[in-house]
Each structure stands twice: as C-alpha cells, then as structure tokens.
Fold this protein.
Amino acid sequence: MRNMACTKPVLVSIFITFSVELDDTLPHLMQEVNKGFEGFKAMLAGMIKEAMDQGELPASIDPESMADSIFAGMLGASVLYGVHKDDLTLNHSINSLIDYLLMLKEKEIPA
C-alpha cells in the first residue's frame, strides 16, 4: 500500500477551487459543492465503521471525526500539489495519511 503511486488530485482540486470561488459569489452553488464534500466524508466514515466492525481499526475511533481528518488531509495534499505541482510532495502528503491509518490499524497510537 505504501508504494502505490498517487494520481494527481485533479477532481479534488476542482472542488476546492469551486468552494473558494463560489463561497461569496454564488452561495447556492457552494451549497451543492458542500453536499458533495459531506457525501464523500459520509462514505469515508462508513468505510471506517466497516473496518472497525471487522476489527481492522480500534473500536475507540469516532468514524465521523476520523473521516473529517482524512478529508482535511486530502484537501491539504491537493492544495500543496496545486502550489508545488510536484508528485513527490503529493506522494509524501498522501503517504503520511496512509502511515497514520496503518499505525491505527496496528493500534500503535491513540485514536
């Protein structure tokens, strides 16, 4: 899992751009983008809950909070890629998220 090549987060970058640009100018469209963000976070929370149910992650994790953290990390990775246009920076950011999840799986750090 650690050696997977990360694809460029073009779609996420588009939604970040939309959210920034639409916030003040077209708030009704921003609400639609936010629905997508919330739906994605709900999907992540469901995947986390499933992993917890299967004993792959500690039961002490709050799935919604963890989904928020992962999503924030993904957004941050996308922003950094947008600034640096560097695959190494993107891979480092994504791999840090993966490392964190793997440590949780091994119960090496508190949730």
The chain has one domain: 10-18+28-105. Residues 1-8 have pLDDT under 50 and may be disordered.
